[in-house]
What does this fold into?
Amino acid sequence: MEVKSAFLNGVLEEELYIKQPLGYKVKGEEDTVFKLKKTLYGLKQAPRAWYNCIGKYFQENNFTKCLDEHALYAKIKDRDILIVCIYVDDLIFTGSNPSMFEEFKKAMIKEFEMKSSFHSKTTQRRCSRNSRWITASQLEHWWSAK
It folds into this structure.
């Protein structure tokens, strides 16, 4: 899934000011600067602000952040698992239950502006879990946006 406005959703943690863009300067106020309320695409702080925004959303919705890979989140519900990886403005997810995929897609579309073309691939699945590790090989489904 691709988040259309990932770098425009982030809330800034610090105060940032920008000059008026060329072509949009107000006559007589050329030296006026603007305080940003949200991130802009191309802003150095935009990826961090987006990651904080999506991370907060995942934590509020019972996802667990991987300790070793900070862009990886998992949600375990009964005996099913949903694994989500954040890659820039894409969300790649897989798991053991297709109904969790649908629930996740609907929730993400409701919360964030997402591209709606999805592709899935079904393969054979081998998944094992112990108290510390989840090992997955050729999971049942994977989804991605084109």
